[in-house]
Specification:
The two termini are 49 Å apart. The protein has one domain. By secondary structure, the protein is mainly alpha-helical.
Length: 144
């Protein structure tokens, strides 16, 4: 049954579904960031430290360690960013769910009102038919 809220309910449902997809994407980004962070930590542990040799070997190992630490720091920031993104998506989803439920409730109330009016009209019609039938029977009895 269509009401004045039907189109709004459908729009709000689409918005809510879009928010759900954004949250799923944000969660996927977080998993990506965490796996990148874990991989960068593993790479840091795999970098060999020279114990003897020329100073250039020590300097190149240090530069490699420094660059890996920068990558790790970048991945930490990426994780923090995706966590904020998730919180934002959760808040957006919560708001869109509330809006959807509000208009869904209004639509159901409107449907209840229409059904109540229909029942009342049907009862009136049935009463009128019963009264007309009774009158017809009474008139027929008087005539016979």
């Amino acid at each position: 049954m269509k009401t004045k809220y039907t189109s709004l309910v459908s729009v709000k449902k689409n918005i809510m579904q879009k928010s759900e997809r954004e949250l799923q994407n944000a969660n996927a980004n977080l998993k990506s960031a965490q796996s990148a962070y874990d991989a960068s930590l593993t790479l840091l542990n795999d970098i060999p430290s020279p114990t003897s040799g020329q100073i250039s070997n020590f300097l190149s190992a240090r530069a490699l360690l420094d660059s890996q630490r920068v990558i790790i720091e970048h991945n930490k920031e990426w994780i923090l960013f995706t966590k904020r993104e998730i919180e934002s998506a959760k808040e957006s989803l919560k708001k869109s769910m509330i809006e959807y439920e509000k208009f869904k409730y209004l639509e159901l109330e409107e449907i209840k009102k229409v059904l109540t009016k229909r029942k009342q009209q049907e009862a009136k019609d049935l009463d009128e038919i019963a009264l007309m039938t009774y009158e017809n029977k009474r008139i027929l009895k008087e005539v016979s």
